[in-house]
UniProtKB/TrEMBL annotation:
Keywords: Membrane, Transmembrane, Transmembrane helix. InterPro entries: DUF1206. The chain crosses the membrane at residues 33-54, 74-95, 116-137, 164-186, 207-234, 254-275. This is DUF1206 domain-containing protein.
């Protein structure tokens, strides 16, 4: 009897392993496509922001706003459909990283925190996919920080709402600082298959990654600080989205110069994501 149960379990494990192996090729292609979609959105956000910095008619916007801008262009409807598929692929990949741990993060504290962060990213991109579907259905979407301010107001009205917002802001601030450190240390290069890259590709991916990931970290940090201010002052108007964070950069001394630098950084991040789409390791190198 015990042997029979053992054999059944072994057979089931083999079938699951085979199913995972069969799923990998299309899942990996889906994930790489998702990286390209993410890079496209950040590239456009940075491009619109730098146009504004130079007074060329651009604007500060969120990811939803970038997709809405694309939808208004010739053939934009088709492009948004393609990006929706890609963004759903990126969300799917984050869920896969959370559940199946293809990168072997493990179950220690560091591994668990990493996998929780993947799940949070998945939720964010699922929300972005929902916004994309709304755009395709010609439904109104929130393209400014007002949406986040509404969510903050609802959260502040709940028990322990201020505490939850403060914790969220602290986590986002830490993530932002972590991204800056990760970028400047050059550790992000370990996730690239550099043996498949030319010398020029390795060089430019290094520069673009350092600049782009740092800029993204700065934006995350600003968003985190404003969430903490929201909790301390119990004022939802303090909540800022990506566009609000960029606007805050513009209000600082030498604001246009700083906005230009951060905008170029977001463009660099978008281009770097194209490199990740091609060369990122999607499983543990071990």
């Amino acid at each position: 009897m015990k042997k029979s149960l053992f054999d059944k379990k072994k057979t089931l494990d083999n079938k699951l392993s085979q199913a995972k192996a069969d799923a990998k090729p299309w899942l990996f292609r889906f994930a790489r496509f998702g990286h390209m979609a993410q890079g496209s959105v950040y590239f456009l956000i940075g491009l619109l922001a730098i146009q504004m910095a130079f007074g060329l008619g651009g604007k500060l916007t969120t990811s939803q706003g970038a997709l809405y801008t694309i939808a208004k262009q010739p053939f934009g409807f088709l492009v948004v459909i393609i990006l929706a598929v890609g963004l759903s692929g990126y969300a799917c990949w984050q869920i896969t990283r959370t559940i199946f741990d293809p990168e072997n993060k493990g179950y220690n504290i560091k591994g668990i925190v990493s996998r929780i962060s993947y799940l949070v990213v998945a939720v964010i991109y699922i929300g972005l996919c929902v916004s994309t579907v709304k755009i395709l259905l010609h439904t109104r979407v929130h393209t400014t920080s007002g949406h986040y301010q509404t969510l903050s107001a609802r959260m502040l009205a709940q028990p322990f709402g201020q505490t939850i917002i403060a914790i969220t802001g602290t986590v986002i601030l830490i993530v932002g600082l972590g991204q800056i450190f990760w970028a400047l240390s050059g550790r992000f290069q370990k996730q690239l298959k550099k043996n498949e890259m030319s010398q020029k590709e390795r060089k430019w991916s290094k520069y673009l990654g350092k600049f782009g990931i740092s800029a993204r970290g700065v934006i995350f940090g600003i968003i985190g600080v404003f969430l903490i201010k929201t909790a301390i002052q119990a004022d939802p108007d303090e909540t800022k989205g990506l566009d609000g964070a960029l606007a805050e950069v513009a209000t600082q001394p030498f604001g246009p110069v700083m906005l230009t630098i951060v905008s170029l950084g977001l463009i660099a991040y978008g281009v770097y994501m194209f490199a990740e789409a091609r060369y990122k390791r999607l499983t543990s190198p071990n």
